[in-house]
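Lab manual, section 2.4: Encoding a predicted structure.

Procedure: take the sequence of the chain (361 residues), apply the prediction step described in section 2.3, and record the output as C-alpha cells. A sample record is shown.
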Amino acid sequence: IPEQSRIISVLSDGLGSGVKANILASMTAAMACRFAASNMDFLHCAEIMMDALPVCQVRKISYATFTIVDCHHSGRTRVIEMDSPGFLLIRRGRIVPLQSEEKASPRWQDRRLRFTELELEPDDRIVLYSDGISQAGLGSAEYPLGWREEGCRDYVLDQVADNPSISARHLAENILVAALTREPRRRAQDDMSAGVIYFRHPRRLIVLSGPPYSKGRDGEYARMLEEFDGKKVICGGTTATILGRELAREVTLDLRGSSLELPPLSRMPGVDLVTEGILTLTSAAQMLEDAALLRDNNPAAMLVDLMLESDVIGFVVGSRINEAHQDPNLPMDIEIRRNIIKRIAKTLEDRYLKEVSVQYI
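Recorded output:
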C-alpha cells in the first residue's frame, strides 16, 4: 500500500495438500490481506474467514493456518498468527524473545490467534514458514520427529552468520532447499512455504541501454553512469562502446555464463554487468514474468538476479534507432527497446514491489 508506506505479507497453509489445500490457502491469504489492510478488528475478521472457507468433505472442517505481517516503513510492525509455526525475529545475528498476546474466537474456541507488536530496526529480519518446513523428514531415521522449529531456527542463524547481508530471497530459497534435503528422496511430504522480510536501507541499481538520440548527449549519458551510487548495468554493445569511449575505459569480452541462446558478457571497470541489448532484455523479461527460481547462469539470469536483489531501479533508455533491430530475419518476439523495458518495469513494480523509474535520453 504505497500511499500508507505499508507492506502486508501473508503466508497461509491449507488443510492437507494438493488442490483443496491450495484453494483453502489462496482464499485465506486473499481475505487476510484485505482485512489487514482495512484495519478492522481482526478477531472478527478471522471468524468471517473461517465461515467463508469451503468445508473439506472428508474431515468435515474448513481450515487454513496463516501468518500475517503488516510492516510500516517506520519499523512499526504487527504480526498475527493462527496455528502456524512461530515466526522468528533476528536482530544482530540472534533470535529476539517476543511478547505476544493470545485471543480465542468466541465462535471458534479451538482457533487461537497470537498478536505481536514490533518496532523493527535496520538489518532486522522476520522469518516465517509453514509446518511442512518444520516437519521435514518426519518419520525418517535421521529426523524421526521432523526437522522441528529448533532445527529451522539454528539453520537460519547459521545462514545469517555465514553471510550477514544475505538477501530475503536467497535466505527463503535456502530454507526451502534445506528442508527438501531432509525429506526422503528430496520430495516434500507436505506443502512447503517460507518467507523472509529484511528491514534495511534500499539497494539501488541503474540500467543503461541504447545510444542517446543525440550524439551530443553521450557525455551526459556517461556522467549518469559514473556518478550513480549503487550497482551499474549496461545492456547493449553500442551502449558499452559509447560509455567506454566517454569514460576512457576498455571494454573486453567475458565468456562467463556464455550460452548458445545469448551473446556473451563483456567487462568494463566500475560496472557490475555488461551484456548484449535486446536479446538479453527480452530473455530477462520472460524470466521475470515466469517468476521461476533462477537455475541458469547466463547473462539474462545475471541481469534478473541483480534486479531482484535491488529495491530502487532506474532505467536510462537511449532513443536512437539501432539499424540492426530492423533486420526481418531476427526472431518475431524481439520488441523495440523501449517497449521491452516498459514490460520489465511493469513486472518489477507489480509482481516484485520494486520502485522503478524509466528515463529517455
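Check your result against the sample. DSSP finds ten helices and 16 strands in the chain.
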